[in-house]
Design goal:
alpha+beta, three-stranded antiparallel β-sheet, 35% helix, 15% strand, elongated
Length: 192
């Protein structure tokens, strides 16, 4: 006559199999959470870069509209730090720089009375290209979330807003301002 009971060596084997399956699922879920976290950081970095490119395009358009006074846009300091600035009563180039600085600060998006737009610790620079009278280099820097290689540009380098060079992100654009000249008074330097 056969017994309906399992041999003593088989007791608990099913429980061990269930525990191993739960452990495998836990590791898979941890991997999924890590992947989602990395995807969120990457999405935020991408958002910041797209905001920076939009702001660069905005200032390039402002300079091109006021091309006769393009030299007035060159800044010797970083723009976009501190509190919002009232731009009333400023002249053409000054109002453009003031409004651009406020956009860098994130003033365009407001939630609950606070500016929430733009990038983390964003700063802007406008410089004249070396050896040129009609080329301007626009740069925007901000703080990234994940360390990478430091950008080659100097805009924002050494600023206290960026705790490490590996967290400083930067996008730049060269604006070539085309000015109309008489053929007899052609510039000595190469034009755009």
């Amino acid at each position: 006559m056969k017994s309906n009971t399992l041999p003593t060596l088989q007791r608990g084997a099913l429980l061990i199999e269930v525990l191993v399956a739960i452990l495998i699922c836990a590791f898979a879920l941890l991997g999924f959470v890590a992947m989602q976290s990395r995807a969120t950081l990457t999405e935020f970095e991408s958002y910041q870069r797209s905001q920076a490119l939009f702001l660069l395009d905005d200032m390039a358009n402002r300079i091109n509209i006021n091309r006769a006074n393009a030299g007035a846009y060159v800044s010797g300091t970083l723009m976009g730090g501190g509190a919002l600035v009232d731009c009333d009563g400023k002249t053409r180039a000054d109002i453009d720089l003031c409004e651009w600085g406020n956009l860098i600060r994130g003033s365009a998006e407001i939630r609950g009375g606070s500016s929430i737009g733009s990038m983390i610790s964003a700063r802007g620079c406008i410089a004249r290209s070396a050896g040129s009278t009609d080329r301007y280099v626009l740069s925007l820097v901000w703080q990234g979330m994940v360390p990478t290689g430091a950008p080659a540009g100097t805009c924002g380098k050494g600023d206290v807003a960026f705790p490490a060079e590996t967290l400083r992100r930067m996008v730049s654009s060269t604006v070539c301002v085309g000015l109309l000249h008489d053929a007899a008074s052609a510039p000595s330097l190469a034009r755009c």
